[in-house]
Each structure stands twice: as C-alpha cells, then as structure tokens.
Design brief:
397 residues, 33% helix, Peroxisomal Thiolase, Chain A, domain 1, alpha/beta, two-stranded antiparallel ribbon, 2 domains, single chain
C-alpha cells in the first residue's frame, strides 16, 4: 500500500448521529438537519464556521445540493461521494485529507440515507449490460456461501457453525438493546436466531442486517487546533481504503473464507497507526457485520484471531461487550441498522462516545489501558469488494 498516512494531524471535534429506524415521519432533509445540528452543537460551531463539506449518500440524492438545500448553505463547497456501503467512510476520508493538506481549517463529513419508503431494499443501482461474468445473486445469497465454505475448510460441522452465527447475532442484539439510537432494541435468544425463517442458504432473518433510515456526521480540524473546540478530541491515527478488481467472481481459487481487500486495508491502517498487535492494542472495533458470517471472517481478516480459529473465540465470548476485545458495542449493522450512506460515520460515532466515556453506562467499555479504537466498513460482495479501515485514539502520540 502506498499511503503515508495522516497520523495525529487531524482531530474529530464534534459528532452527531440520528436514531436509525424506519422513519416514516421524516424525510432526508430532516435527517440531514438533525445529524448536522447535533454535530454543530457538540463542537460549538455554526454552519458558517465550516469551510467545506463532504456528503455521502448512495441513493438518496445527487450532487452537493442534496446537503446544501436543507442546511441552507450559500456558496460553500459541498462534495457528494458514493462508494457502496463505505460511502460514509469515503466522506470522512475526503474531509480529513482536505484538512490535513492545509486546504481548509474546518471540514464536515455527513452521511445520510432515506430508503425505507422508496420501495428498495439494499442498493438499487442498475448496472450496465455485461459479459455474463458479473454477479447475479442477491447480497444475502453471496454472503451465505461464506458459512459452508468456512466450515468445510476448517472442519466446523453444520450444527456448530449455526451455533457460532447465532452467537454473533445474540451478541449484537444484546448490545443494540442498550443503545437508544439502534433500530432493533430487543435482545434475542439463540433459539430464536436458530429457528428464524431462512432467507438464503442457511442464513436466517437474524443473520442479516436491517435496512434503515438515518444520518451521522463529524467535524474535523487540524490536531493543533482541536482543544479550541473540545477538551476531549479524538485523533485520527490511520485511514486506509482498498478496492479489489472484482476478479474473485471468476477466480476458481477464491474460496469465500477470506476477504483480501479487508485484510489489505487493515494491514495498511495498522502500519500507519503503529499497531503491531491489534487484538491487544485496540480497546474496541466496529466492523461491517452485514451478515453474521461476514463478522466471523472479519475477525480473522482484521487480525483478531488466527485463521480458522475465530469461531472458537466467538463461542468463548472473546468479542462480547465484556470480552477481551468488544466488537460492535453499539449493536453493529445487525442491530443498529444500515442506512448505507451513514453507516461508516455511525461506526465512528460509537468510537467517539466510547473513547470519551460518554456511552450509556451499561455498555461503556474500559478504554484506559488501550486508547485506540477501530472502524471497518466494506462495500460489495465476496470476491467483489472494497474496504475501509480507520484507527482513532484519545491521545496524541
């Protein structure tokens, strides 16, 4: 990877996030205004204080006017970005690099999606005609192939694999039940997960993230200016993006037990942040659990468990809220919900709360010994994927 990184050059000084839900009573403009207002207030600034905006949405609007209109921005630069489910992370990356370059003093990244009343589930992009080698299955069908492939490769029988995936669902719903902004705020039992209707392959309803409406935002400044805005800034340690060529779809050697783009993005982010042992140096991680087998494989791709062992760690509770490395303490996509353009920034919002000690008491994790947190956001499908990883910390150095 060729990134030199922007370690400790940029700080997050304000964040906001709406509730993620089926928000029939709110439009896109309402969600944007709600997230932006909370973010302005948390940093003690107004919209006029922001030099430039980056707006991420996958399918809820075209151009920067989609953001400028509800916020009534006049003659401000607003860049609209899209990168599959990593759209919100792409907005953050643009804002951070712009500040790090010295082009702007204060920038905002905001991601939003309003899809529940659109008639679409997931991404609705219409691809141009191809040569017949492109994916034709649904996202659930593509990710459903991960579970049996992993089980076959590492000798995990079907019943044990079902138990592992149900444990991931139970964990994330347990965390989301303690999060007032989450879409699904009810704990589930393992039996409920195991008996839920099947959607694709062995994946049931509780193996799949929900579609939601929501928005989230962050304000970033140069690190040396951070204390002008807050006494508890969060510093950017690493940002990494890796995009695959999609060749996994036609590669007979691709076995669905590994997401190379995610491993590459993580390795680059760790190098930027100076992380040599993520399992021991990170206090928490927010990962892209669009489906339960996705989270399982990511535990290995992100370096939290050796190959073929993550399933044992899941059953041992390693990644639970009170485990050695809490994963998705806010409930993840599975429980918090997944408005595509907002999810990357929602992950960062949880890091913001946790690293500042501002999460609800019943899900606040200890961050004193490990002052780093990570977000992982992917877009696409097995064999055809892009991946973003960020590392943030509560202290400089």
């Amino acid at each position: 990877m060729g990134s030199h990184g922007v370690r400790d050059k940029v700080a997050i000084v304000g964040m906001g996030c709406t509730k993620f839900a089926e928000q029939w009573d709110k439009g896109l403009d309402d969600l944007i205004v709600d997230a932006a207002t909370e973010t302005f207030d948390s940093a003690g600034v107004s919209k006029e204080d922001i030099d430039a905006y980056w707006f991420g949405t996958a399918q809820s609007g075209m151009s920067g006017i989609t953001l400028a209109r509800p916020l009534q921005l006049h003659n401000k630069p607003v860049t609209r970005v899209e990168n599959y489910c990593a759209t919100g992370s792409e907005a953050l990356r643009g804002a951070v690099y712009a500040v790090a370059s010295g082009a702007y003093d204060v920038a905002m990244a905001l991601g939003a999606e309003k899809v529940k009343d659109s008639g679409f589930q997931g991404l609705n992009a219409v691809n141009p005609p191809g040569d017949g080698t492109a994916r034709t299955l649904t996202a659930a069908a593509m990710f459903s192939m991960v579970a049996p492939a992993y089980g076959q490769k590492y000798g995990v029988d079907d019943d044990t694999m079902a138990d592992v995936l149900a444990s991931i669902a139970v964990k994330n719903h347990h965390n989301g039940a303690r999060n007032p902004r989450a879409q699904f705020r009810r704990e589930i039992t393992k039996e409920t997960a195991l008996r839920s209707p099947r959607l694709a392959g062995t994946l049931g309803v509780f193996d799949c993230a929900g579609v939601a409406d929501g928005a989230a935002a962050a304000i970033v400044v140069r690190a040396e200016d951070a204390l002008k805005y807050t006494d508890k800034p969060i510093y950017i340690k690493a940002l990494s993006f890796a995009t695959g060529s999609g060749s996994g779809l036609i590669d007979p050697g691709y076995d669905y037990t590994h997401f190379p783009e995610c491993e590459a993005a993580a390795a680059d982010a760790y190098a930027q942040a100076g992380i040599t042992d993520p399992r021991r140096q990170l206090a928490m991680a927010e990962v892209h659990d669009c489906f339960t087998p996705t989270e399982l494989v990511l535990m290995e791709d992100l370096g939290f468990a050796p190959r073929g062992t993550a399933w044992k760690e899941v059953l041992a509770g390693t990644f639970d809220l009170d485990g050695d490395l809490p994963i998705n303490p806010d409930g993840g996509l599975k429980s918090f919900g997944h408005p595509v353009g907002a999810s990357g920034l929602r992950m960062l919002f949880e890091c913001w709360l946790q690293m500042r000690g501002e999460s609800p008491a019943d899900r606040q994790i200890a961050t004193t010994d490990r002052g780093l947190a990570m977000t992982h956001n992917l877009g696409g499908y097995p064999g055809e994927m892009l991946s973003f990883v960020s590392v943030v910390g509560s202290q400089l150095g």
